[in-house]
Structures are given as structure tokens and as C-alpha cells.
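On clarity, I found the account of how folds are encoded harder to follow than it need be. For illustration, here is how one protein appears when written out as sequence plus C-alpha cells.
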Amino acid sequence: MKPKINKHKFHYEWKLSDGYPAKGIENHKSKVFSCFACGGGSTMGYKLAGYDVIGMNEIDPKMAECYIENHNPKYAFIEPIQDFKNRKDLPKELYDLDILDGSPPCSSFSMAGNREKDWGKKKKFREGQAKQVLDNLFFDFIDLAKELQPKVVVAENVKGLLLGNAKQYVRKIYKEFDKAGYYCQHWLLDASKMGVPQRRERVFFVCLRKDLAEPFLYQQDMFTVNPKLELKFNEKPIKIRGFVEFEEKKETINYSHKRFGDVFLNLDKPANTITSSVRFWLNDKMILKNKSYNLIGSYPTDYKFNSDNVYIIGMSVPPVMTAQIANQIYKQWLNVLKPVCDLSYNV
């Protein structure tokens, strides 16, 4: 029998113990710092794509503890980003980043939440976190980018940011990145087209520092100029039949009192989006085994969780999703800039 051929650049089933980067990917060691790091979904994606993630910032001590156990970062700042961005004692290495990455908490813009009713209000996710105005965190992140001046900034958020009145925030995001010295573009991407067995749509803002942009500038029309970056992913969707497992649950779903997070899966399609409180069912008696959430979220199967794995995976960017984007940023931008930046540094 012929061995199965992996047609995806990054495979959803992998282990931390396999090491980095993924097979066939250049180990270029471009430097990344991750904000709102959570369990390290984006961190693992960058590592799979050949990057070196040198540090993290996270407000939740328990989440940070989990991140540190699995990733052992060189620098770990467990504090609100409002405090972190104002530090005057940051390591010099953070002022020489290839990518500053962040996923500012986004529940204020989610279509499943209160949206406009929560804008401007202080909230917190779980115990151990300080209350914050969540819709301001994106701009705190941009303030940090303005201070550190990495070559590239990548920020992830929910699809709801592009809908309705939330569009005003997108306009402000562009304006603030411009003032910080960056060309900004955004893409709405679906993880199920990127080698992740999960339908998960997310917005990614990818920004290039203006003084580095000349080799990539192109004119779409007489008014619009942006650094060219192609982020088109059309990998074949992965149906979950054959690799997910279920177990019998003592409780059965009462259809008239179904929980908000209870979702029935179609085995011949990618899974629905993993949220922080979802429960996937095959039928009214069979529920998805915990370890299958790792596979659906492209989390490593040997990841050490210190709390509910569904919560951490649901709060994270799927590692393979980030790996796909990071791989293209390196190939199209950073790899081209490397000789120029090295020459400037040596001079």
C-alpha cells in the first residue's frame, strides 16, 4: 500500500516533540514577539513557519503559566498591555523585531455578543484578569508597534469587526497604523481553506513599515498605493470523518433546552468554529472526545493544558492558520528585505 501523501503545507496533526519548523520549511529564525499570547496558537504557527518567537505579553497569569510551560519564552511579561507598552526597560532585542504579533481580545465586535452595547465598557474574561475597555486594546497594541517599530505587524480579530457600525474601528485602525509609520492592509481568511479542519473566519491586519515598503509598492488605482502581498489560500477542505472520536455521554441533549454551545457536527465537512464554550456532538448521545478538539484546532496532540483545552483552543488562533500567513510574509517580504536590512545593520 502506498503511503498517504500530505497535500497540505502544514499538517493539522502534529506534536511539540516533533520540533520546529515543519518539515520542508526553512529555519530562517526571523524574530517575533507575541502580545495577547493566550495559549500560544499564533506562537506555534510562527515556529512551524521557521520563526523564532522570543517573547510574549499576556494579562492572565494562569494562561501565561500554560504558555510558559509549553513554549519557554526568553521574555515573558505578565501584565496588561497598557503597562507593557509604557515600560522603559524593555530588552533591546524587542526593538529589532521582524514581526510584532497580537490578537487583541475581540468579544466587543463578535456577532455573538452584545456588540455596540458593550463598546466603551470595562470587561474581563476570567478571574485573574483586570477589567479593561476591550475595544481600546487594539489601539494600545498599535501604540506598542509605534514604540518598537518592527518590520511587520500582524493583528488578528473576529469577522464582526468588518460588519455594521464596527467598520468605524477599521477606519481608525488604518489611521493609527498610518500615524505609527505603517502601510496597513487586511484580509478576511477562512481556516478551512488553509489546511485546518475547522470553519473559522478571522480578519488579519498585516502592516509593513513605510521605510521598507518601496520594493513592494504597487498602485491599484490613482488614489491607492499598498505594499503588494498575496494571501490567497485554497487548500482542499478537510472533512473530519475518519480522525475525530466520540464517546457516549450520560446526559442527552434536551432539544428544547439546548445549550448555546452545543453543536452537531457534519462528519463530511470541516468542523464548526471552536469557541471557548463549544461542545461538539455526533448525535444526542455521543459527544466529541477532548483530544479531537486539538486536531480540529491544529493544536499539538502533546500540548500540556493547565485548564479546559476547549477554552484555550477556542481563544487561540489555529497554529496552522498562522503558519500559512507567516510563511507567505517571509517568502514575499522578509526574505526580500533580509539582504537590505543586513547591509544597513553592518554599515
Observations:
- Helices lie at 41-48, 61-71, 81-84, 137-148, 167-180, 290-296, 309-315, 319-346.
- The chain has two domains: 24-234+313-346, 246-303.
